[in-house]
Amino acid sequence: MTQWIRYRANGKVGFGTLSGDTIAEHSGDMFASPKATGQTLKLASVEVLPPSEPTKVIALWNNFRELAAKLKQSIPPEPLYLMKANSSISSPNTTIKRPKSYSGKVVYEGELGIVIGKTCTNASEDDAAKAIFGYTCVNDITAAEIISKDESFAQWVRAKSFDGFGPFGPVIATGIDPTKESVRLVLNGAERQNYKLSDMIFPPHKLVSLLSHDMTLNPGDLICCGTSIGVGTMKEPTNTMDVTIEGIGTLHNVFAN
Questions:
Q1: Do 235 and 151 reside in the same domain of the chain?
Q2: Rv2993c-like N-terminal domain spans which residues (predicted)?
Q3: Are residues 115 and 223 in the same domain?
Q4: Terminus of the chain with fewer CB atoms < 10 Å: N or C?
Q5: Domain shared by 202 and 78, yes or no
Q6: 123 and 188: one domain?
Q7: How far apart are CA 173 and CA 105, in angstroms?
Q8: Same domain, 43 and 54
Q9: What is the 3-state secondary structure (H, E, C) of the chain?
Q10: Is the same domain home to 121 and 172?
């Protein structure tokens, strides 16, 4: 297993591998034969950035059997998804502010994220597996009351695309099988979500294959695999959110009402 991280240090953006609290700096392209420079940095000395720069962010709906059963939704025959604006992306450890234009409920959604490592179009499941670079933690923050505000049109993209509503990280972990792990979200010190990734309707290889038949997936693209039971509202003036997946780590952010 390798953990890849992007960061800003001394005014410059870099990337490398993370081991404990030490970053081994690399040069070149994270997704195309990166080379270690021999230089190291302490994690505490850098600003951690989102671990990739996606050309697009895809977010799944109704991709877990347990949540589908709770909501009395049928199992979809193909992935149901939306696009989340790239301008919603935010870094780990940052504070996300309530939009001034919206006063309703804002909810957290702890999720697994897939990061693509090479261009992928019309891929078989085997080829899709080879196109996956690794996995990360996602918090798909949502202005829940906007979705059904207009009876004539479900506003999924608007609800999920406010500035800052797309934090992911802190690393991309390669060489792991996420379907053996769970997603755990802790809000203000209390566990709110803890669900198994083996419950996914469309697991990573199948999901990437199907999506690649709709659109070309590019290196760095982020696929948010959808969430399961335990989604809830952030009610306090300041809300700490920690999304943890074993092997990847913990994505920490604060939401300020």
A1: yes
A2: 4-51
A3: yes
A4: N
A5: yes
A6: yes
A7: 32
A8: no
A9: CEEEEEEEECCEEEEEEEECCEEEEEEEECCEEEEEEEEEEEHHHCEEECCCCCCCEEEEECCEHHHHHHCCCCCCCCCEEEEECHHHEECCCCEEECCCCCCCCEEECEEEEEEECCCECCCCHHHHHHHEEEEEEEECCEEHHHCCCECCECCHHHHHCCCCCEEEEEEEEECCCHHHCEEEEEECCEEEEEEEHHHECCCHHHHHHHHHCCCCECCCCEEECCCCCCCEECCCCEEEEEEEECCCEEEEEEEEC
A10: yes
Confidence of residue 24 (pLDDT cuts 50, 70, 90): very high
Q: How confident is the model at residue 152 (pLDDT cuts 50, 70, 90)?
A: very high
Please state, rounded to an integer, the average pLDDT across all residues of the chain: 97
- Note the pTM of the prediction, 2 decimals: 0.97
Q: pLDDT tens-digit profile of 159-168? A: 999 999 999 9
Q: What is the CATH number of the domain that holds 26?
A: 2.30.30.370
Q: What is the dihedral of CA 166, 193, 243, 187, to 10 degrees?
A: 90
Instruction: Give the CATH number, domain containing residue 184.
Output: 3.90.850.10
Can you give the pLDDT at residue 229? Answer: 96
* The pLDDT of residue 108: 98
Average confidence (pLDDT) over 118-145: 98
Q: Are residues 182 and 80 in the same domain?
A: yes
Supply the range of the domain harboring residue 232: 50-256
Order of all β-strands in the sheet with 249-256: 95-97, 249-256, 238-245, 182-187, 190-196
| 161 and 213 both lie in a single domain | yes
